[in-house]
């Protein structure tokens, strides 16, 4: 978000302006800090969480779907990033900040805690969840 503010004040919506060396170094630092923070927090969760939440009976199928969707989304973002940057300019940073906020809210409310839960008991965790317990049928795969 700070990158968006700095670039927004400098370039505005026209996209024309000049960055001083100090401001350019600051923007580069902020982008590197964002990438590092993402790599240490949200980045690995797309691979780690699915490996913990699928019951053993469907784990390999769930992981293969997860990998496919992850790579498809990465491909789509890579293809549209420059176009979005040209059209949204500094707003692109706010766009991605909004997605991080949305992900945080989703995880807080919809992802159950899996700490110290054996993989064999994950179906019980899903059934006891306030939301997913209503969606998950009683005769689901992995009944305990």
UniProtKB/TrEMBL annotation:
Major subcellular site: membrane
Pfam families in the record: Sugar_tr
PROSITE patterns reported in the protein's UniProt record: MFS (PS50850)
Transmembrane domains' residue ranges: 26-45, 65-85, 92-111
Domain Major facilitator superfamily (MFS) profile: 1-115
Superkingdom of origin: Eukaryota
Membrane topology per record: Multi-pass membrane protein
Similarity section: Belongs to the major facilitator superfamily. Sugar transporter (TC 2.A.1.1) family.
Name of the molecule in the record: Major facilitator superfamily (MFS) profile domain-containing protein
Species this chain originates from: Nymphaea colorata
